[in-house]
Specification:
single chain, 347 residues, alpha/beta, 6 strands, 9% strand, globular
Length: 347
Amino acid sequence: MRQLVQLIVLTPAIGTQGVRKDDGAEIPSNDELEQRASPLWRDLATSCQRVAVWLVSLGQVPRHVCLVPDGHRRFSRATGTDLRRVYAVGAYKYAKLREWCFRAGVDVISVFMFSVRNFSRNSFDMTSALDQANQIHVEIVDNADAWHAAGMQACACGDLERLPEDLRASLARAEIATSDTREKSLKRQMSCAAYNTTYQMSRMALHLAKAVKEGVIRSEDLTGKFLNEYVALTECPEADLLLRSGGDQRFSDFEVLQCNYAYFHLDAKLWPAVGFLDWARTIIHFQLQWPAIQAIKERHRLMASYGSGRSDPEQVIRQRTFFRNVYAANILNMERLAGLRKDVVGQ
């Protein structure tokens, strides 16, 4: 089965390859070439991709994929392409990757949109990135019915107060518009903006210290399982795969708490040049490495559970009450950021 998948994904897809300059840099014209190709070729390429996604889905699929789409500025310089055009192509590539992941069975995709450090870049770079992010989430709101029909939800986390007002409003509106309390198996897209793990950890520590001081929870309630659940509720659950483009070998302080056992896949290509074959190879590499990672996870789980006693019912009630309050507070905060409430104080 694995050989068949490799045969499909390693076969060049007709009508999806970009053109290249003399220096080998790819110009972001994949979507344009697809439009120019005949309907027959487009249908053939789409059918091949769907078969490959189906075959990949028969194996172990990561539940949560972390994405660091790096390389937009380098791609712009290498190809002489306007940076705003490059960000638009990057957004298109992300939408395709999200489609492939969800089709294969991924439950959560978290994408690193901006680090807090990114705000030190020049105004044109940041304006281009921020405008594209805002457009993405405005389109999500406009197409909320389609997201509901597909069982998808857009979420956001990070220091959203640092963002321009229009962007933080569109992020909050996208989360509200695609939320559905009746649906428990939503495919989640998490946009991490003005994000870094250091800030998230400090905010978590302050929040938990305040809850202990106010008697909502006790210090003995802050178990390892409790902290994992808190991080999953306020951000994302444990990650299985971290995919980074651009060739850099670093986390960039992105979801460090979630990536204890994640398979870290580096792609040398700059993000606008990444395509379906790169995604498929990434999933296959994950599937090859996952048994060894899973064995380590299981060994550590057994070590952590050794000697642990039965849970205290009163402790469970305190923890559940705390999580319900956190969930309700997040909803109110998103309504405030969306401009729907004026009676809520910022977190």
